[in-house]
Amino acid sequence: MFFSVSTFCDKTGKLSNMKQVDIFTDGACSGNPGLGGWGAILRYKGVEKEISGAQEATTNNRMELLAVINALKMLKEPCKASIYTDSQYVMKGATEWLTGWVKNSWRTADKKPIKNSDLWQDIHLLNKTHCLSWHWVKGHQGHPENERCDLLARNAIESLRESLK
To answer: Is 86 in the active site?
Structure first.
């Protein structure tokens, strides 16, 4: 299953000259909250770079967001980035909820602070730099890059676990 939402943007007036990067992301947690890891693959003109990281006492949603944020922060100039995620939370947050959160000063419709507002604010700022299109893929269904990102995230958790012994 695959779902895509493209956002039209032309921040520079030269959209066609922007580099096109594909970004695949995933987050994982061992316990929720618990040890968490994230993984991402950046692909540009057939060249791939894998990145990952981990944190203690975190949540799966934070790891999903950090995968996207850290991947976007790797870009050295404004780009057209297609982001592939298996997280409905990230997908809906980026394409449906973010605009309302900004208008409501990072609060929900019923005036409660949104969860992970620090990370959503990072996504909001990165969205101003890059032209992002969001694509949802069903997780753990054999999507090669999603499976690799999941492995990167789980390996990051295990490395963190070993370093804490």
So the answer is: yes
Structure tokens, 159: 């490395």
Among 26, 53, 122, 143, the one annotated catalytic: 26
What's the predicted TM-score (pTM) here? 0.92
Residue of 37, 64, 93, 122 with catalytic role: 64
Q: What is the pLDDT of residues 52-64, one digit of tens each?
A: 999 999 999 999 9
Let me know if 26 is a catalytic residue: yes
64 is catalytic: yes
Q: In this structure, how many other beta carbons lie within 10 angstroms of the beta carbon of residue 145?
A: 19
- Rounded CA separation 12/61 (Å): 32
**pLDDT tens track for 87-115:** 999 999 999 999 999 999 999 989 999 99
Cβ atoms of residues 133 and 18 within 8 Å: no
Active-site residue among 36, 37, 39, 86? 86
CA distance 87 to 65: 9
